[in-house]
């Protein structure tokens, strides 16, 4: 009986692997495609643009700082694969005025054709204890990280649905999969992206448009360096429990997953575990992906409990050290 059950399980898994490609999205061809990257003047955004350009895409870079855009344009153009490729730069704040964003997307489409892939990389991080953060910080992060992804996506979605082709990428964060000390403002804005992506994917899937949510870990970018200047001790110690990734590595994985139409894009073993743990009602790209999540959920939850315990321990130690310092100052 046991052998029969094992044989049935093996046959079932093999069947899933055989059927899975039939229901998975057809990969997007990047040669000649028009890719728009917001926040494309530095960090992950610039590396995503380079990766797409290496594969023959036409690029529209969108960011606020015109000087940084022009510098990024020069770097990207070094990686051309043919003399027809173009890098277009547009300076605009994607989080402030939807009509402005809509207009610049129209300009880009008039010059380089319909947008085949949009990568929403514009974002920022500010950390601090909940009661120490100004209310304006919550508003600012929600505006930049959430609305800064809504506006460009809203500007391209109609054309993508009409053409029955398209990819939209939202760059969230591992802090958009679990809440951490010091990230009450940042995590909430990144969690919001997940909800937007899930709902949008259900709307656009019948039109052959696919959404990808990327959850990069700490990545060596100018934004990360700026964030580290004001990180609370607890946040910094928790962050140091994992390694810092290179933006080129993150960008390659994002582009790969977007081309394939994968809903989740994660980096490394920790990223894979987090994506499986937090999959909830998220869509899957293949049956095998869903099966892997079902099989690994219990094990990953057990491992996660140890992580959570270690994070709580860090917070308690910092609190005790702070209390001792305050006592010492009073008695001095």
UniProtKB/TrEMBL annotation:
Chief location: endoplasmic reticulum
Classification via InterPro entries: KDSR-like, NAD(P)-bd_dom_sf, Sc_DH/Rdtase_CS, SDR_fam
Keyword Secreted: no
Cellular component GO terms held in the UniProt record: endoplasmic reticulum membrane
Keywords linked to the UniProt accession: Endoplasmic reticulum, Lipid metabolism, NADP, Nucleotide-binding, Oxidoreductase, Signal, Sphingolipid metabolism
Catalytic activity: sphinganine + NADP(+) = 3-oxosphinganine + NADPH + H(+)
Signal peptide location: 1-25
Pathway: Lipid metabolism; sphingolipid metabolism; Sphingolipid metabolism
Subcellular location field: Endoplasmic reticulum
Source species, domain of life: Eukaryota
The EC number(s) this enzyme carries: 1.1.1.102
One of the GO BP terms on file: sphingolipid biosynthetic process
UniProt GO MF annotations: 3-dehydrosphinganine reductase activity; nucleotide binding
Role played: Catalyzes the reduction of 3'-oxosphinganine (3-ketodihydrosphingosine/KDS) to sphinganine (dihydrosphingosine/DHS), the second step of de novo sphingolipid biosynthesis.
Family: Belongs to the short-chain dehydrogenases/reductases (SDR) family.
PANTHER family to which the protein is assigned, alphabetical: 3-KETODIHYDROSPHINGOSINE REDUCTASE (PTHR43550:SF3)
Protein name: 3-ketodihydrosphingosine reductase
Source organism (scientific name): Equus caballus (Horse)
């Amino acid at each position: 009986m046991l052998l029969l059950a094992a044989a049935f399980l093996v046959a079932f898994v093999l069947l899933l692997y055989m059927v899975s490609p039939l229901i998975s999205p057809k990969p997007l061809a990047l040669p000649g495609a028009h890719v728009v990257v917001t926040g494309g003047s530095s960090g992950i955004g610039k590396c995503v643009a380079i990766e797409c350009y290496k594969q023959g895409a036409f690029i529209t870079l969108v960011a606020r700082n015109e000087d940084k855009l022009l510098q990024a344009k020069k770097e990207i153009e070094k990686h051309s694969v043919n003399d027809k490729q173009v890098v277009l730069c547009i300076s605009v704040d994607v989080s402030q005025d939807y009509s402005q964003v809509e207009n610049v997307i129209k300009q880009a489409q008039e010059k380089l054709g319909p947008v085949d892939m949009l990568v929403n990389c514009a974002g920022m991080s500010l950390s601090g204890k909940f009661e120490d953060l100004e209310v304006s910080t919550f508003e600012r992060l929600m505006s930049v990280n959430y609305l800064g992804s809504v506006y460009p996506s809203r500007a391209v979605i109609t054309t993508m649905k009409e053409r029955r082709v398209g990819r939209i990428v939202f760059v969230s964060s591992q802090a958009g999969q679990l809440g951490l000390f010091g990230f009450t403002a940042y995590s909430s804005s990144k969690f919001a992206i997940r909800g937007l992506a899930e709902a949008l994917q259900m709307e656009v899937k019948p039109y052959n448009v696919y959404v990808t949510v990327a959850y990069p870990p700490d990545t060596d970018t100018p934004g990360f360096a700026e964030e580290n200047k004001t990180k609370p001790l607890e946040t910094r110690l928790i962050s140091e429990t994992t390694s810092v990734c290179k933006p080129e590595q993150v960008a390659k994985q994002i582009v790969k997953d977007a081309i394939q139409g994968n809903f989740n894009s994660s980096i490394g073993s920790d990223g894979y575990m987090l994506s499986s743990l937090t999959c909830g009602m998220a869509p899957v790209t293949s049956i095998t992906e869903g099966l892997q999540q079902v099989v690994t959920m219990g094990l990953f939850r057990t491992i996660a409990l140890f992580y959570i315990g270690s994070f709580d321990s860090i917070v308690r130690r910092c609190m005790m050290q702070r209390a001792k310092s305050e006592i010492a100052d009073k008695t001095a």
